[in-house]
Design brief:
Blueprint: H1 2-29, H2 42-52, E1 69-77, H3 81-92, E2 100-107, H4 113-123, E3 127-132, H5 136-147, E4 150-155, H6 166-177, E5 181-190, E6 195-197, E7 205-207, H7 210-216, E8 224-227, H8 245-251, E9 258-270, H9 275-280, H10 287-301, H11 309-327, H12 333-350, H13 363-378, H14 381-390
Parallel strand pairs: 1-2, 1-4, 2-3, 5-9
Antiparallel strand pairs: 4-8, 5-6, 5-8, 7-9
């Protein structure tokens, strides 16, 4: 009964979001928004943003994965004593026909997480604990990547857990299809009463479209099985908020074939104190801009095709509705306009490889992306705001 009520509440929330989006699209179609050209110049815009959150470096090491086992499961752990045992039980209980390892990176925990990890390490020979000073989620995952020996990689957060048998299922999917990334369905676990809102089962399928893969799975590192070689030249950018963005922007573009698993593969907890919500409501909101610029630069360095239509559309999406949603918390027109100006400069200077990009989606969605592209080209701040609300 509680699960049904939670499912209904989630459905109503999604329905409300869809209605809101339709309303914003109508405004855009009827041109009932204010057209206004951004007046701030790029240098000034960078200065405005830099006073709050300057753009940092983004460094990646060259890694070589030994291939000593089939799968490396990487778990960053920071003060997760309340959920860690359930997480570890779910992964240590996985039965695979091939060897796998579990790498837990204790990222400077100050609660009881260290004791829990010690108990599990003694009990399960496939589990290894690495003690680190606090570097944040990106640093902990990078540490795990440097120690990983699997042919495939799987990220698991310490407050989440896995259904039984899922690692074998995802591994079978990867080996039978030849896909470099297998994306599973995720369920939301409401933390107040441990209610799991099950996703709708879909037919599993192979997919080569970057855009379709983006729409199928959440933009997070967890819940996906990766061929390890995808991470040889790319790791998480440390010191940034929303560092998960590199999964879409640097890892997905290297993938020639995805496999979309239609059944439940991952359970994540939805809490008010989640890392995403903490980052969104802080100065790190500006990283929604910086991380895209750095990720595209890195994608070029590793030879990804940044001039494909789907990749270009993905960048437009990130620098509109994603960035807009993360910057409105500042309640500052100057900050929002500054981010738009820097993004417009970046788009116009970087994506000049084609005379015209072919957007995907229904006709209404394609038109929004055409207008969004135009807003960057003409520095029409008002049009950009309305497109960002409509996507």
């Amino acid at each position: 009964m509680l699960e049904y009520a939670a499912r209904v509440a989630l459905f109503l929330k999604q329905k409300k979001g869809q209605l809101q989006k339709r309303k914003q699209r109508k405004i855009l179609e009827r041109k009932q928004y204010t057209k206004e050209t951004a007046v701030i110049d790029t240098a000034q815009a960078v200065q405005v943003l830099g006073k709050i959150r300057p753009c940092g470096k983004a460094e990646c090491k060259e890694l070589t994965f030994r291939g000593g086992c089939a799968v490396s499961v990487i778990i960053p752990v920071y003060n997760a004593a309340g959920t860690l045992s359930k997480c570890l039980d779910s992964v240590c209980g996985q039965k695979l026909t091939q060897d796998f390892e579990i790498i837990c990176v204790n990222d400077g925990s100050t609660d009881g997480s260290t004791d829990i990890l010690s108990k599990y390490e003694k009990r399960y020979p496939e589990l290894v604990v690495i003690e680190e000073e606090n570097r944040g989620g990106a640093g902990a995952r990078n540490c795990g990547l440097q120690k990983a020996g699997g042919r495939y990689l799987f990220f698991l957060d310490a407050d989440d857990f896995l259904p039984q048998g899922v690692l074998q299922k995802l591994l079978d999917d990867a080996q039978q299809s030849g896909a470099e990334i297998v994306i599973g369905k995720t369920a939301r676990c409401l933390t107040s009463r441990e209610i799991i809102v099950q996703p709708r089962t879909e037919e599993s399928r192979e997919e080569k479209s970057l855009w379709s893969a983006r729409k199928y799975g959440m933009g997070t590192p967890w819940g996906k099985l990766y061929k390890a070689s995808l991470w040889e030249k790319t790791q998480f950018f440390e010191g940034y908020g929303f560092e998960d963005s590199i999964v879409y922007l640097d890892i997905y573009p290297q993938c020639k074939k995805f496999y979309l698993e239609g059944t439940l593969s991952y359970c994540f907890r939805s809490g008010k104190n989640s890392l995403y919500k903490r980052q969104k409501n802080s100065a790190k909101g500006i990283d929604a801009l910086w991380i895209v610029i750095k990720a595209v630069q890195h994608a070029q360095e590793i030879g990804a095709d940044i001039y494909s239509s789907e990749y270009y559309q993905l960048i437009l999406w990130h620098l509109s509705t994603v960035m807009y949603g993360r910057l409105t918390q500042f309640e500052s027109r100057e900050i929002l306009e500054s981010a738009f100006v820097v993004a417009a400069e970046f788009i116009c200077k970087t994506f000049t490889g084609k005379e015209e990009y072919a957007f995907v989606g229904d006709e209404s969605e394609k038109e929004i992306y055409r207008l969004l592209e135009k807003s960057f080209q003409e520095r029409d701040f008002g049009m950009w705001v309305q497109c960002s609300k409509a996507l």
